[in-house]
Design a protein that fits this description.
With 414 residues, the chain is of the alpha+beta class. The protein is built from 9 helices and 21 strands. The strands form 6 sheets. The protein has an 8-stranded mixed β-sheet, with helices on both faces. α2 runs antiparallel to α3 and α3 runs antiparallel to α4.
Length: 414
């Protein structure tokens, strides 16, 4: 006669120093036949005797409880390398682009270190040279440019390097060449270096239509032909960007990037020398109460723009006007705006009819970042990312920020 034995839960643990099993709840024994059980104890059993056991989970086999979100470990962190690998696994980037982004982060670490020690090691002040735009170069302008170029060349994944500080794009030697075009401003806001205020680096990455490889052993290839080939490959609209980002050098060093799937910011942990993910999938506020214009040029602006600025100065529904903030560094302005919202403008004026900022090195990469975060960027008449560059150092006016703030501006400019 079979008798059901109450379900008992066991947990078996074996000690390394003893063969005795210690039992605690974990396994359920199913009902068994008492007579067969007695035969087993007496050693009398046939070959066809069987014991049926079932290992049942504590939660039960039929009903599964609601999933409980695992709390984040206070020591858990995602660094830039891990994030890039995750993006590669997700198919957002390839291995070559991951290497390029990693090499840029190395250049940013080196620049950040030099900036922190610039007064100590005599890296402040002018270099005594002038760049292609006729601007006096700071010592760190020149050094930072070399750091960027060296890191990108050594990555072996770039075909063309175009810098704001260089006269023409540089074609990487075939031995070290890859497929990507990288455009960058090594130090944005370099006028702030000597007074230890905010500075930054800006970069954009294009996938070229064809590689720009220069065979220096080929006598038929002239320098002018090589340069022309590079210039044609570099002059692409911002809509062709495959990745863009900036590095902010301030109280923290923040490396912010987008590979076409949102905006992510990594803060440099000086204890480990690693960029750690601190801002995930940044979304710019739809509106903001901060505007950033160099109002010293107010009298040089178009009357429509002056009316817009006058409007911002008037008290709003809360009785307060917009707050005016101006750092003199595009990276700092954009970083604040991504987190707090608002609008930044560097428009054309009577003295700078084409604008002040470079389209390739500054406006297009920053517009890409802001649009990925849900914002907008325009020159006043068209979307920045749709402008086709005609020159590598082409300038443009720009208005960039929260979508509702840009839409309000466009009504005034219409």
């Amino acid at each position: 006669m079979a008798q059901a034995i109450p379900r008992i839960t066991w947990n078996t643990k074996f000690s390394s120093s003893s063969s005795i099993a210690h039992h605690s709840p974990n396994f359920h024994l199913l009902p068994i036949n008492i007579k067969r059980s007695q035969q087993l104890l007496n050693g009398n059993f046939s070959s066809n005797s069987r014991i049926h056991c079932e290992a049942a989970s504590l939660e039960g086999a039929k009903t599964a409880p609601a999933q409980i979100k695992k709390p984040k470990n206070r020591y858990e962190m995602v660094n830039l390398t891990t994030w890039l690998l995750q993006q590669e696994q997700a198919g957002n980037i390839d291995a070559e682009l991951a290497i390029v982004l990693s090499s840029i982060s190395l250049a940013c670490k080196q620049i950040a270190s030099l900036l922190q020690r610039s007064s100590i090691v005599n890296l402040t002040g002018a270099q005594g040279t002038v760049n292609i735009q006729g601007e006096d170069q700071k010592k760190l302008d020149v050094i930072s440019n070399e750091l960027f170029c060296n890191c990108l060349r050594s990555s072996g994944r770039t075909g063309i390097i175009a810098s704001e500080e260089e006269d023409v794009p540089v074609a990487v030697e075939e031995t070290y060449s890859g497929n990507y075009i990288v455009v960058f401003d090594p130090i944005d806001g370099s006028a702030n270096i000597d007074i230890a205020l905010t500075t930054g680096s800006i970069f954009g990455i294009y996938g070229p239509d064809q590689q720009c490889l220069v065979d220096y052993d080929d006598d038929s290839t002239t320098i002018d032909q090589a340069r022309e080939k590079c210039i044609v490959s570099v002059c692409q609209p911002g809509s062709n960007l495959v990745a863009a980002g900036y590095c902010l050098y301030s109280s923290s060093v923040v490396y912010t990037i987008s590979v076409g799937d949102g905006v992510y910011a990594f803060t440099l942990d000086p204890a480990y020398g690693e960029f750690v993910l601190t801002h995930e999938d940044i979304k710019i506020p739809k509106a903001g109460r901060i505007y950033s214009f160099n109002e010293g040029n107010y009298d040089l602006w178009d009357e429509k723009l002056q009316n817009y600025i006058d409007h911002l100065r008037q008290p709003g529904p809360n009785g307060k006007p917009y707050s005016g903030r101006y750092i003199g560094c595009l990276v700092g302005e954009i970083h604040r705006m991504l987190l707090y919202g608002g609008i930044y403008g560097n428009p054309k004026n009577k003295n700078s009819k084409n604008g002040n900022l470079r389209l390739l090195y500054e406006c297009a990469p920053m517009s890409y970042i802001v649009e990925q975060a849900g914002g907008k960027a325009t020159d006043g008449t068209q979307r920045i990312l749709e402008i086709m560059p005609e020159q590598i150092h082409q300038r443009t006016g720009i208005f960039i920020g929260s979508p509702e703030e840009i839409e309000k501006l466009e009504k005034y400019l219409a």
